[in-house]
Fold:
Amino acid sequence: MPLFEFTCPHCGESREVLSRAADAAPAPNCPGCGRLMTRRWSPVAAIGLGSTGCAAPRGGFS
Structure:
């Protein structure tokens, strides 16, 4: 399940929300001031496949 981060632009409160669908995470109301929070975009980790085309380390499982 995707984890989304939200921040209140008014008081700075932050919160993480689990959602079943990536595009269906509704912005929650701030628990501190009650105003609508905005979604905070986080960097995403990327894994390179290298020259072998396989993400598994050499040798694999035995």
User: Anything to note?
Assistant: The beta strands are 3-7, 14-18, 38-40. Residues 1-44 form a domain with the 60s Ribosomal Protein L30; Chain: A; fold (CATH 3.30.1330.30). The chain has a mean pLDDT of 78. The radius of gyration is 18 Å.
